[in-house]
Amino acid sequence: MKLLVVLLALLLVFCVTLLLVNRWYARRFMRWITDPATNPMPEMPAAWGLAAAYTRRALGREQALANESAARLDTLLAALDVLPAGIVLLDNEGRILFCNAVAASHFELDPARDRGQHIVHLVRDPAFVAWCEQVSNAPLELTCHADAPAKSIRLVAQRQPYGDDCSLLLFTDVTAQRQTEAMRRDFVANVSHEIRTPLTVLAGFVETLQSLDLSHDEQARYLGLMAQQTVRMQSLVADLLTLSRLEGSPLPGMNERVNLHELTTQCAAEAHTLSMLLYGADAQQIEIETAPGFDLAGSSAELRSAMSNLLANAVRYSGSKGKISARWSRESNHGARFEVIDNGPGIAPEHLLRLTERFYRVDRSRTRHAQGEDGTGLGLSITRHVTERHGGTLQIVSAPGQGSRFMLIFPQARVLAE
Ligand code: ADP
Hints:
Elements: H1 2-34, H2 46-81, E1 86-90, E2 96-99, H3 101-107, H4 119-122, H5 126-133, E3 140-148, E4 151-162, E5 166-173, H6 175-211, H7 216-248, E6 257-258, H8 260-279, E7 285-288, E8 294-297, H9 300-317, E9 323-330, E10 336-342, H10 349-352, H11 364-369, H12 379-389, E11 393-398, E12 404-410, E13 415-417
Parallel strand pairs: 7-9
Antiparallel strand pairs: 1-2, 1-5, 3-4, 4-5, 6-8, 8-13, 9-10, 10-12, 11-12
Helix pairs in contact: 6-7, 7-12, 8-9, 9-12
Bound molecules: adenosine-5'-diphosphate.
Adenosine-5'-diphosphate binds near residues 309, 361, 362, 377 and 379.
């Protein structure tokens, strides 16, 4: 009986010890498993050791998977960040999950600081706020001024739902497209206006000739005026064709050698003829140096149109008895320059920057009074285009009452020794 009690006591002591040892291992295991990154894996016997080893292997696999997913997410976000369009990812309540660099610059967002913020609290354009609140996925066009207050950007916003009621907002910059559309509209309006005027005049004369019994002299006068209008339309169409050819053709190569002596001689003859035609006995005094001593690489036809535009303008705008001079010279940086100088009325500074715009004229009434020689407003635009196609620049120096100096400046690469 006594022996049984001793055995039971020993068994009890053994069980309690086993329990305590197990608890101690369990605590070590739990301490490790709750923070395996900072606690080393404890050395444990038998089943505990096995459990720890299996757990460690499973944890390792999980960790590797998590690392891989994080790396993939980082790559994906880095790719979204370099997209040329703005991207914003929103959660189901419209809070920012991610915004890329372009969207951040459009709306002055800070990708890290603004994560978790409601987008409508940061982009406060009323149209955008209303669009965010509506269910429709129709795109929205909005203006933002973030980059530079003076420079507004036109954006098209599109929304694409994804995942668990989240949405992706895509912002595309359509500023250049809208500008091109506006330019095209202006261009068509300008061309229509330029053509409508002579057509209206022509229609009026035709009606007069049809309805009135005119004398031979009167008929001849009307026909002369009609011929003037057709010439005006012809020059407009010719200039438009030149512009479209310039825009559609490849840049002038370096293989064609333009004989500047020949070209300048031809342009000088044209200028003399035009001056005689316009002013008769009061024709201007024109001095053109026709032997530059070097040639240019480029397109002879294009350079001819640029040079003769400048000379024709000098003749038309400097009036009778004006003085015109033109010459080629070398620049100090070894480039070349063609300049046309006149002592005409000159041009006010506010017009200088706009002179090369298509259809821009300083004073339409003065243009019209230039002895029936009506300009198209395209000449300087063509001249600048040609010069730039040859790598050069068109420079204008002029002031009211002090005449004008138009210069075509070409780079050294285009200059060929004679
Ligand atoms: P246009 O066909 O009207 O001459 P251009 O593009 O050649 O068109 O010239 C634009 C405008 O620049 C002209 O309408 C004229 O007002 C002004 N201009 C050009 N050349 C001269 C000049 N030498 N002197 C004064 N004004 C000039």
